[in-house]
């Protein structure tokens, strides 16, 4: 994966003060996209272990309440593996609040266990931070993709990884930017077709629930 930039004090892409990673590469090419420089998968800079370590350290600042991953397209096939690894490490560092003794796991077959010790112990070290993901894919395309019946394990693995990334987030801002629906007063998104989705509540209720000011 390659990345375009990192913002240390981001107040635009989610609730509160955040740290944001703009990944490189996007196939959607929305009309009048504000970030066309991120379209080229060969552009930007290399995402290395050292860059990832520095980004993780950046999120530890007490004033950082939110971490946003956007682009570019974080859920493009070319970016999935590195985004999955990053989101999983972030969720392990900043687990969703659970009752004492609860172990939180994403319930997949990957090699990551999101939390293997008491969540309250972890929270003493790192206060709760929300994870926001921006994607041109809609919730329905991510969770209920339309596929053919042919045997394609590589495709199925990518689709599964895309779902698991989103399940670990607090908020998904979904859908492509549509110029004719642009609204500068619309919080945390560029056009009104895009939804700011509360992931946890949506998974619990089985239908899309929008994020409310916390």
What is the mean predicted local confidence, pLDDT?
A: 88
Largest sheet: 7 strands, mixed
How many beta-strand runs? Answer: 7
The low-pLDDT segments are 99-124
Give an overview of the whole structure.
With 214 residues, the protein is an alpha/beta fold. The chain is 27% helix and 16% strand. It has helices at residues 49-58, 80-93, 119-125, 139-143, 153-167, 199-205; strands at 2-10, 18-23, 45-46, 66-70, 130-134, 171-174, 195-198. Strands 3-1-2-4-5-6-7 form a 7-stranded mixed β-sheet. A hairpin with a 7-residue loop joins strand 1 and strand 2 (18-23). Helix 2 runs parallel beside helix 5 (153-167).
Note the main attributes of this structure.
alpha/beta, single chain, 214 residues
């Amino acid at each position: 994966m390659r990345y375009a930039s990192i913002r240390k004090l981001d107040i635009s892409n989610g609730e509160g003060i955040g740290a944001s990673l703009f990944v490189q590469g996007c196939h959607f090419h929305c009309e009048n996209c504000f970030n066309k420089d991120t379209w080229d998968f060969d552009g930007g800079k290399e995402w290395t272990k050292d860059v990832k370590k520095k980004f993780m350290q950046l999120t530890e600042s007490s004033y950082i309440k939110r971490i946003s991953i956007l682009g570019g397209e974080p859920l493009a096939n070319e970016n999935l593996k590195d985004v999955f690894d990053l989101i999983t490490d972030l969720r392990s560092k900043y687990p969703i609040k659970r009752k004492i003794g609860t172990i939180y796991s994403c319930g997949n077959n990957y090699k990551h266990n999101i939390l293997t010790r008491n969540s309250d112990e972890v929270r003493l070290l790192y206060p709760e931070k929300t994870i926001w993901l921006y994607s041109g894919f809609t919730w329905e395309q991510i969770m209920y993709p339309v596929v053919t019946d042919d045997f394609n394990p590589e495709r199925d693995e990518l689709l599964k990884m895309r779902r698991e990334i989103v399940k670990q987030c607090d908020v998904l801002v979904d859908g492509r930017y549509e110029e004719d629906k642009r609204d500068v007063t619309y919080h945390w998104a560029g056009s009104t077709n895009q939804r700011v989705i509360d992931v946890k509540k949506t998974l619990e209720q089985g239908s899309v629930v929008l994020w409310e000011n916390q």
